[in-house]
Amino acid sequence: MASWTRDELARIGAAEELQIAPVRDDGTPRAPVPIWVVRDGDDLYVRSYRGSDGAWYRTARAGHHAHIAAGGIDKDVALAEENDPGINDRIDAAYRTKYQRYGNTYVIPMVAAKARATTLKLLPRS
User: Fold this and answer.
1) pLDDT by residue (tens digit) across 79-125?
2) Is 70 exceeded by the pLDDT of residue 1?
3) What is the per-residue pLDDT for 116?
4) Residue 19 vs residues 26, 35, 87, 106, 112: alpha-carbon distances, Å
5) pLDDT digit string (tens) for 99-111?
6) Residue-wise over 10-32: b if at least 16 C-beta within 10 A, else e?
7) Closest alpha carbon to 48 in 125, 126, 124, 120
8) How much is the average pLDDT of 10-39?
C-alpha cells in the first residue's frame, strides 16, 4: 500500500469537501458524492452523515475501494473500517474543529454514534 505525501495530506485535509465514488462489486464506480473529510496526523478519515443508511457508505463498505477527489488531488483509495475508540475520539474532535462554522445542526450528527460507526480510513493505492 502506498503512503500519502505531505502535499496530499495537506491539500486533502484542508479541503472543505471530498468527492467520493465508491467502487461497486462489478468494478464500476458509483457517481461521486460530496462528503466531509478530516485529518488525524498522517491519516485521512470520512464518515457517513446518514450512518449505515448512506448509499455511498453501503457501497464503500461492501467493496472497500473508491476514487476520491479533493484539494486538486485525484486518487484511488482502499477503505478500512476504523473502530478504535481513541482514534474515533480524535476524529470527533477534528470534525468539531474543522466544521464548527456549520454549527451543531451538521456537526452533532457527524460525531454521534450512528455516524461514528461508519468511520473509514482512506488508504492511498498506487
Assistant:
1) 999 999 999 999 999 999 999 999 899 999 999 999 999 999 999 99
2) no
3) 97
4) 20, 6, 23, 18, 22
5) 999 989 999 999 9
6) eebbebeebbbbbbeeeeebbeb
7) 120
8) 97
CA proximity to 52, closest of 107, 95, 113: 113
Give the sheet arrangement for strand 18-22, strand by strand.
33-35, 18-22, 65-70, 73-81, 120-124, 43-46, 37-40
- Helical H segments across the chain, by residue range: 6-14, 55-63, 85-98, 104-111, 113-116
Domains and CATH numbers, the chain: 6-124 (2.30.110.10)
CB atoms within 10 A of CB 42: 10
Decide: pTM greater than 0.70.
yes
Residue recorded with cell 464518515: 47
Instruction: Please compute, for residue 26, the number of CA atoms within 13 A of its CA located in the half-sphere on the CB side.
Output: 2
